[in-house]
Each structure stands twice: as structure tokens, then as C-alpha cells.
Specification:
Strand order of the largest sheet: 2-3-1-4-5-6
Number of helices: 18
Shape: elongated
Mean pLDDT: 90
Structural class: alpha/beta
Radius of gyration: 28 Å
Helix content: 40-55%
């Protein structure tokens, strides 16, 4: 199971225990709340906790969890109604301009049209997380950038004069608990302290206990959310105290970067490859100093572009990264108990066993923990990379990767013959082209 990250917040116990109790919203008529987020982050848990808290307070409650088709990462909207009596609740789903509270645990979902239309301008309390969680479209568009400012503006324009608060709950959760899963309970604490949740804090904490999942972390997250709503500077001080004090990092020079990457290339293949890299960078740096004195950028571009081409991630490198100790250390640091490892791979040498009918790509197959010893053996074969004994080097992808290295080196040779103050900008742009490769 995942190992929980323990953070000592005993110094904040007094602050968390003596928070003022806000006035709860009146529910003479049904009070409508909408909690939004993505599946797998605990949004539905918020709905379950509030349902139990409403029951403990003797209030009527109705809820619908709309999770769509995705259980992990898909949009989730939990519609809830509170009333003094269950009989007063005739409908649950929040309609157009009918929400009293929108608790937005994900920026993209909260700014969607379906959620925005439930906000009643100048009335609905909107509390949302400003954290920009990347969407699945990133898998198709590696250069995707979320329009965070536009999304926040859409929420603000809809809420108008209604109570509105945006904060990065993800950052608070990671800083305070080492786990972003606490962010939604943190948001609930903020909403409660702002007087937007019609159940008592005692009932919410009792419901967290009855829910039985990471009880202490969820209770603390709820209390820290309340504290953030009451005194955000106090939370900032606690976060600053809990973070390790790292020594000041001195600026890295070009020589530092080259040395670091040369060390990586030695592990990736051998010292000869590292020497080839360093020699090329030294030649380009000298050329730039001689032919375009006072200008910079070309050597830096080659440092990044050439390294990226030389260290393409092939089968040998995957095997090395799994067996150089870091992977197994990460398992030990993050999980307890007996682990069952399963690797999903599509070895090109086994592609004849079947290809995906829709994509034509080799099908992935499952392999057990015995792959780790196999990876150790495979990692030793990296000295054959690019030679006639490289059994993986005959595929189109590997041939193309080696060809791109040769093409880049020829281009650098041409740059060396043509470099001048007039061509320097073009040379830098060409040298940076590998950075766009995905």
C-alpha cells in the first residue's frame, strides 16, 4: 500500500483547535451545493462525508455523484441538497443558476459550461482551486498549455459579486501533508469556515472518522483549510517551518551543465560517448567566441540539443534506469508490504505475436517481477548499442535516431563554416531544433 507521508504539525495544534465557529447558512429551503473535480482524487469522498455529517446533524440530505465514463482523471460533479427535513428535498441536481455553493476542486472542470451555468451571479459562493492540472489532451499535444488566466476569468465573470475565493489547494496539500489527495478536504475546510457548508464541524470530523480512510490526514486537512480561510498567513508560516531549509543554489555555468551531462552519458553508454559530447561542445564554444565575440546562445543550444539526440531512450536505457538502484529505492520509500511488480512492455522482437488492429503498433504484454534480473542483463548490453550486435538497432525507430545524430553533426559542421554575426541567430535556431522532438 502507499506509504503515507508523516508531517509533524503539533506546533499548530493550538491554532487548529481554537478556530472561531462560523455561522451556518440557513436551510429553511433546500440548500444546493455542487462539488467538482476529477475522478480518483477524493471528490466523491467529500460527498460521502457531507452526507454522513448531514445525517449526524439530523438534517435532510440528497446527493447525486455524476462521474461520467472515467473513474480516474475524468470530470466529476457531486450534486447535493441540504434541508431541515428530507421531505423538503424534491430534486437534487443543481439546475441553471440554482447553486448556493460551488466547491471547485479542479480549475478546468469548474470553468466548464455545465458548472458555470449552475452559478447564480451575485449570489452563489464559489470557492475553487487555482491549481492547473494537465488534461489528457497533453497525450496528443505535448505543447499544450492550460489557459489558466482565461479559466479563472470565466469563473469570476460568472460569479460577479457573489462570494468568491481562489487558492492553490494542491500546493497547500503537498506542502502540509506530502500528498495532493488532501487538497479536496482542505477545500471543504475553507468552504466551512467561510460559512458556506450547512453542517457542523464536529459532524464533518465524525464523518471523516466513520469513513475510515486516512482519518488523521483528512481531519488535519479539513482543519488546515479552516485555518487558511481564517488566517492564511498562519498557514504560510507553518508551511515555511515544515519545509527543509535547502542551501542556496549557486548559478550553474555552461561547464557545470556539460560535466553533469557527460557523467550521464558515461552511465548511458561509456566514457567515449561522453568525450565525444564534450569535444563537440568545446569546439562550438570556441567557434562562437572567435567568430561572433560578445554573442552567446549557440553553445548553450548545442549543449541541450546534442545531448538529447545522443541519449535517446532505447531498450538498454530503460533497462538501466530500472536497475541502477533508483527505481527500487523509490519503491521502498513510497510503499509498504509485499509488492507485486508487473511490467507492461511491447518488445519489438516479439511484435510477430500480434499487433493492435486499430493502430498497427505492437501489443503490450504483461511480465512479472522476473523482468528485473532480465533488465540487469539487458542493461549490460548497452555497449553493443549502434553496432552490428545491437539486436534492437535494426528497427526503423532506432535507425532514425542514429541518423538524426549524424544529421545534426553534419549541420554543426556546416554552421562552423558559415557562422558570422549575420547568421548567428539562424544557427542558434537550428541548433535548438532537437528540443522540439517528442
Amino acid at each position: 500500500k502507499p506509504r503515507s507521508v508523516a508531517r509533524d504539525h503539533s506546533g499548530a495544534a493550538g491554532l487548529l483547535a481554537n478556530l472561531p465557529t462560523p455561522s451556518l447558512p440557513a436551510i429553511d429551503k433546500p440548500y444546493t451545493a455542487l462539488v467538482t473535480g476529477v475522478g480518483g482524487t477524493g471528490v466523491v469522498t467529500i460527498s460521502a462525508v457531507l452526507a454522513q455529517a448531514g445525517h449526524l446533524d439530523g438534517k435532510g440530505f440528497g446527493g447525486i455523484d455524476m462521474t461520467g465514463l472515467a473513474q480516474k482523471g475524468g470530470a466529476v460533479a457531486c450534486h447535493m441538497r441540504f434541508a431541515n427535513r428530507s421531505e423538503d428535498i424534491s430534486a437534487i441536481r443543481a439546475g441553471v443558476a440554482s447553486a448556493d455553493l460551488v466547491l471547485g476542486c479542479d480549475l478546468v472542470v469548474t470553468a466548464s459550461n455545465k458548472v458555470l451555468e449552475t452559478i447564480r451571479p451575485d449570489h452563489t459562493t464559489v470557492i475553487y482551486s487555482t491549481h492547473e492540472m494537465m488534461t489528457a489532451d497533453f497525450a496528443r499535444n505535448p505543447d499544450l498549455v492550460l489557459p489558466g488566466a482565461e479559466l479563472r476569468r470565466a469563473i469570476e465573470d460568472r460569479a460577479r459579486k457573489g462570494a468568491l475565493l481562489g487558492l492553490d489547494a494542491h500546493a497547500y496539500a503537498v506542502d502540509l501533508f506530502g500528498d495532493s489527495i488532501a487538497s479536496n478536504m482542505f477545500m471543504l475546510g475553507v468552504a466551512y469556515q467561510r460559512g458556506a457548508v450547512p453542517v457542523t464541524a464536529d459532524s464533518i470530523e465524525k464523518a471523516i472518522e466513520l469513513n475510515g480512510a486516512q482519518i488523521e490526514m483528512n481531519r488535519q486537512a479539513f482543519r488546515f483549510g479552516r485555518l487558511a480561510a481564517h488566517d492564511v498567513t498562519a498557514v504560510a508560516r507553518i508551511v515555511a517551518q515544515s519545509k527543509p531549509q535547502l542551501p542556496a543554489r549557486k548559478p550553474r555555468t555552461l561547464d557545470d551543465i556539460v560535466a553533469y551531462r557527460a557523467e550521464h552519458l558515461t552511465g548511458y553508454q561509456d566514457a567515449a560517448l561522453a568525450a565525444r559530447y564534450k569535444a563537440r561542445i568545446a569546439a562550438i564554444a570556441a567557434l562562437e567566441r572567435d567568430k561572433v565575440p560578445g554573442r552567446s546562445g549557440l553553445a548553450d543550444a548545442v549543449v541541450h540539443g546534442y545531448f538529447k539526440l545522443l541519449s535517446y531512450k532505447d531498450e538498454y536505457e530503460v533497462a538501466r534506469l530500472y536497475t541502477d538502484g533508483r527505481f527500487e529505492r523509490a519503491l521502498g520509500e513510497n510503499f509498504d508490504g509485499n509488492l507485486r511488480l508487473e511490467f507492461h512492455l511491447a518488445p519489438p522482437l516479439l511484435a510477430w505475436l500480434g499487433r493492435d488492429k486499430s493502430t498497427g503498433h505492437p501489443r503490450k504484454m504483461s511480465f512479472g517481477a522476473w523482468m528485473l534480473p532480465a533488465f540487469r542483463l539487458l542493461a549490460r548490453g548497452r555497449r553493443f548499442r549502434g553496432t552490428a550486435l545491437d539486436v534492437f538497432g535494426y528497427t526503423a525507430e532506432r535507425r532514425l535516431e542514429r541518423q538524426m545524430i549524424a544529421d545534426y553533426e553534419r549541420m554543426l559542421d556546416e554552421i562552423a563554416t558559415r557562422l558570422s554575426p549575420e547568421t548567428h541567430g539562424v544557427a542558434v535556431a537550428l541548433a535548438r531544433l532537437p528540443e522540439d522532438l517528442k
